[in-house]
Fold:
Amino acid sequence: QVQLVESGGGSVQAGGSLRLSCAASGHPYSIYSISCMGWFRQAPGKEREGVASIYTGGISTYYADSVKGRFTISQDNAKNTLYLQMNSLKPEDTAMYYCAAVRGPSGGSCYPRPEGYNTWGQGTQVTVSS
Structure:
């Protein structure tokens, strides 16, 4: 099995930046089985939504329209770590951010839909003030 642990959240003012990290741990074969990784967020009273995702075996990435041009997803395979660089943060970015993974074949797509991911971290809070 795989465990995901997020870090890097915090409170910033609008226009600021944060870098989130997600460390994956577990049996090496379980980690190798991950085909997609993604970032999701959930604000109080709202449904969880996809933010960005990446195909672990290539360069394909996906971004929600609301974060394109501001957020960048990346990975460091040597460290088994996923990152989300968030720039030009807005108050509407305030949410609990979750790291997630697809274990096994992706079926050809890493599109960040919550129902498509089967392994989740505990979340890290991001708060952006105006």
Summary: The first helix runs from residue 28 to 32. The first strand starts at residue 2 and ends at 7. The two ends are 41 Å apart (CA to CA).
